[in-house]
Amino acid sequence: MSSATPRAIAPSRRRHTTRLLAASAVLPLLIGSLGACGYGSKKTDDKPKVAAKGKKLDGLDDVKVGYFANVTHATPMVDRQEGLIQKELGGTKVKPFIFNAGPSEIEALNAKSIDIGWIGPSPAINGYTKSGGQNLKIISGSTSGGVSLVVNPDKIKSVDDLKGKTIATPQKGNTQDVALLNYLAEKGYKVDPQTGKGDVNVLRQDNKEIPTTLKTGGIDGAWVPEPTASKIVSQGGKELLDEKKLWKDGKFVITNMIVSKQFLKEHPKVVEAVLRGSVKTNAWIKSHPDKAAQDINASLKQITGSDLPPNVLDPAFKNIDVTNDPLASTLHDEAQHAVKAGLLEKPVLKDIYDLTLLNKVLKAQGEPTVDSAGLGSK
């Protein structure tokens, strides 16, 4: 996939966009002017591996998709190289936008700067709740696992050593932030969810900056996704906890696929094609794990300008599981964790899922269908 620039923004919309960005806590990946990239998305100029070819679905020129340059977003990162989604879309071009945090991706979805996105559960829950269920639907799972609490082993040897220490997360209210705050509360530590101050200090910092901050002593540990966790370990850090150990059967959703509710209603054929390509990509990843890891590294190189050494890439990739199943029951639990952490008051989860098209695709490909755990259409 190649990244693209959103369509020109009208003056009135540009003013509204500026207000949204001013309210956002996430700006690190904003590159150039608002009209050039928007909402913290990152523009890259590499050419697509598979070109749009053939009939346009629903008459659309393109479909705008968002995701992160993370190993936990393996499906779109691999597809960036293999182009299975583009093949399903025919002449409708995939236009990717890269984000570094979920809230900015939700803003882009709300502003119609993207149509479909891969995103963590907490931003999806927050976005759905704040809109009263009007802005998005979760339409598929993508990955499970791939999150760890990694620490400076000279300062932290056990959970009992966390008091008085500073632990980083990628962003206030993001999936890892919620997980850390919930974990600390369960261990009896008190932390103000808004300021991050308390028995354990929580510092919200961009993923790409966290390894350096830990190495220079600015923080004592971090609750982070891959490949950041494995990078920290490669620099002498220690994994204190793999989040899988906190979940039944070691499975919990870390990345979902979401779609604008309006886009789903108006362009179901396009959404179905993207889902079909996603399911095929996940199957390809499972049957070609070594090449899939190489594809992720190639995408990281294109997006960030650097790839990962084997001692980071290999453990990071092995720590995630691609899945079409959204693991809906774990999303419910993560919403309750956000409430417990003090970051969400009354989560709206009713009808957050619409798995109708996914199950249609799975059935057609002879795969088992998945369930919404009572939180939407099966």
Automatic annotation (TrEMBL):
Question: GO cellular component terms?
Answer: periplasmic space; plasma membrane
- InterPro entries, sorted: ABC_SsuA_sub-bd, NrtA/CpmA_ABC-bd_dom
The region annotated as signal peptide is none
Major location (coarse): membrane
GO MF terms held by the record: ATPase-coupled transmembrane transporter activity
Q: Subcellular localization, per the record?
A: Cell inner membrane; Periplasm
Q: Which SUPFAM superfamilies match?
A: Periplasmic binding protein-like II
Instruction: Write down a Pfam family by its short name.
Output: NMT1_2
Going by the UniProt record, its keywords in alphabetical order are: Cell inner membrane, Cell membrane, Membrane, Signal, Transport
Stated family: Belongs to the bacterial solute-binding protein SsuA/TauA family.
Any idea what this protein is called? Answer: Aliphatic sulfonates family ABC transporter, substrate-binding protein
